[in-house]
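**Fold in tokens:**
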Amino acid sequence: MKNDALCNMVCPVARSLGRIGDGWSIMIMRDALAGLTRFDEFQKSINIAPNILTSRLNALTEDGLLERIQYSVKPVRYEYILTELGLDFRPVLLALSEWGTRNFAPEGRAIEVVERETGRPVRVGMVDLDTGKPISLEEYALVPGPAASPGMRYRYDYIKQKQAGVTTAKYDPLSVSQEK
């Protein structure tokens, strides 16, 4: 369900979660990215109550991740097609799947990403698109960007001080702003 408070924050993680952070919405996107398009397909696949599915499909459509297209006149029926914005969610879903498999699936892989032509299983990860280097915690860091709020800049400055061993610093984001 859409969370306007998160959607209106400067933080891109908050804005994203505000639109798709609900578990049902992520499951709908999982199925849409796999190829399901119709209400009954989503309902049966996810085992979701019709009222909750309607609410989530409306929100995903309103936020531009899905487009509702009529496919039947009598009775009136719609299917939900991924937009470019919805297709952009694929790497997030793949990363979530890899994380879940690695950390919560002792029985092994339930699904795999494979190369279509050869069927070769692919190791999913995040790389620097300019260099091809894997994004590692040791070599890459998050820093405030040009549009960062004062609160965001404060948080990252505090984290930098803490990592540098400054023990006198106390975290007090309210001294700067309410922005998270």
